Structure formats: C-alpha cells, structure tokens
C-alpha cells in the first residue's frame, strides 16, 4: 500500500498587489485538500488534490493534481463518499506528499511573481558569536 504516482494538473498564480508596495506582517496560509477520490481498479484509487498558498491581500498560488494510491479502493471510496474523510495514516501520507511536492513549486512561483517566499527562509548573520556549550551538557558517548 502507498503512493504509486504523483502528477500536477494545473498551476494558477496571481499577484494582486502592485510591485514595490510595502506590507508589514505578511501572513501566508497553506492548505492541502483532497477534492475527490475515484477507484481506478480494485487495488488502486486516484486522489485529486488542491494545494493553496494564500498571501493574504497580496497574491495566491493554487496547484491541482492527482495521486495514484495503492489501497482497497472500494472501501476507501465508500468511506470518502459517506464521511468525506480518509483513514488518518493514509490522509497523513497523502497530505505530506502534496506539501513536499507543492511547496518547492510555490517557492519558485512566488519568486517569479515577486511575492514573498511561502516558507521562512533562513537568515545568515556574520559577526555574532554562537552561545558556548556548557561542559557536560552534551551527549555522552561510550
């Protein structure tokens, strides 16, 4: 059981703000949603998904795609149609794969549209001393 294939179907990205506008405290919301589950065979199901990175008031990036998942497709599609939910382990795996594939794509799209990065990028600072470790505070190795 598990993910057999991942594919992107559509990408939509828009900047609403004018270039050069200054914003403080920019909020970026990420959302991953399974929009449909359809059986492919007895042992496989297609999961349609939508990933959204919403730069509140500044822009939006939407990515849609499909995941082919090996599972008991009849049981999963019945569960999906009745409750709109998936088993926790399966949902966790699907949403993790969506985020792992779509966030890097959103970073590149944000760069091209001159939007802020949808994830915080590390800052490098020179000249500051790192805190010194206290003796005996590390891991002891035998």
Number of helices: 2
Distance between the termini: 40 Å
Strand order of the largest sheet: 1-4-3-2
Q: Average pLDDT, to the nearest integer?
A: 88
Strand content: 35-45%
The SSE string, one letter per element, is EEEEHH
The tally of strands reads 4
Major sheet: 4 strands, antiparallel
CATH first level: which class? Alpha Beta
- Residue runs with pLDDT of under 50 for 5 or more positions: none
The whole-angstrom Rg is 21 Å
CATH architecture: Roll
What does this protein look like?
By secondary structure, the chain is α+β, with helices and mostly antiparallel strands. Helix content is 26%, strand content 35%. It has two helices and four strands. It has a four-stranded antiparallel beta sheet. The protein is extended, with a radius of gyration of 21 Å. The mean pLDDT is 88.
């Amino acid at each position: 059981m598990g993910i057999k294939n991942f594919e992107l179907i559509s990408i939509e990205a828009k900047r609403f703000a004018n270039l050069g506008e200054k914003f403080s405290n920019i909020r970026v919301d990420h959302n991953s949603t399974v929009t449909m589950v359809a059986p492919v065979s007895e042992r496989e199901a297609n999961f349609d998904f939508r990933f959204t990175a919403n730069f509140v008031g500044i822009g939006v990036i939407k990515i849609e795609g499909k995941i082919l998942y090996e599972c008991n497709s009849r049981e999963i599609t019945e569960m999906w149609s009745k409750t709109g939910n998936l088993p926790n382990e399966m949902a966790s795996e699907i949403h993790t794969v969506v985020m792992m594939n779509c966030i890097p794509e959103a970073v590149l799209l944000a760069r091209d549209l001159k939007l802020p990065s949808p994830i915080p990028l590390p800052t490098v600072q020179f000249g500051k001393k790192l805190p010194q470790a206290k003796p005996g505070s590390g891991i002891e190795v035998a």
